[in-house]
């Protein structure tokens, strides 16, 4: 098993990562009866895309001399109704190091093909942009 998720009341859940014991709590968003005091489940889904892309770039980039230390992502989750769902995840990746054109191409290819990206439904629009400073 990967985790144990417990409903703790007041539209909140607690998830324990069984290998490490790390706890993450979630809250329903303010536009859906919650307090919005923690990440919502859909926030975590969208955030997982950016975290997976950055982590996968770091892993696969090692062999190509790509160091992404200090890189980050500004993320926006767009919700739709009927049915309520994430309709788009907008990721603006910011990289602070200098990269060749070939390294930039590798970074972008990895981001578009990370495991979370490939696991999301094809109807969910993934808008990725890359800024190299």
TrEMBL record:
Bilayer-spanning residue ranges: none
SUPFAM superfamilies, alphabetized: OsmC-like
InterPro entries, sorted: KH_dom-like_a/b (IPR015946), OsmC/Ohr_fam (IPR003718), OsmC/Ohrsf (IPR036102)
Highest taxon of the lineage: Bacteria
Gene3D superfamilies xref list: 3.30.300.20
Annotated protein name in UniProt: Osmotically inducible protein OsmC
Record lineage: Bacteria, Pseudomonadati, Bacteroidota, Flavobacteriia, Flavobacteriales
């Amino acid at each position: 098993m990967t985790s144990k998720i417990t409903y703790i009341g007041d539209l909140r859940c607690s998830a324990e990562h069984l290998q490490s014991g790390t706890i993450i709590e979630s809250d329903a968003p303010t536009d859906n009866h919650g307090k919005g005091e923690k990440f919502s489940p859909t926030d975590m889904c969208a955030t997982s895309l950016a975290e997976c892309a950055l982590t996968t770039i770091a892993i696969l980039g090692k062999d190509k001399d790509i160091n992404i230390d200090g890189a980050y992502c500004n993320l926006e989750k767009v919700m739709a109704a009927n049915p309520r769902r994430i309709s788009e995840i907008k990721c603006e990746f910011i990289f602070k190091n200098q990269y060749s054109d070939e390294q930039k191409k590798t970074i972008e290819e990895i981001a578009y093909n990370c495991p979370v990206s490939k696991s999301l439904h094809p109807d969910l629009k993934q808008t990725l942009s890359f800024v190299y400073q």
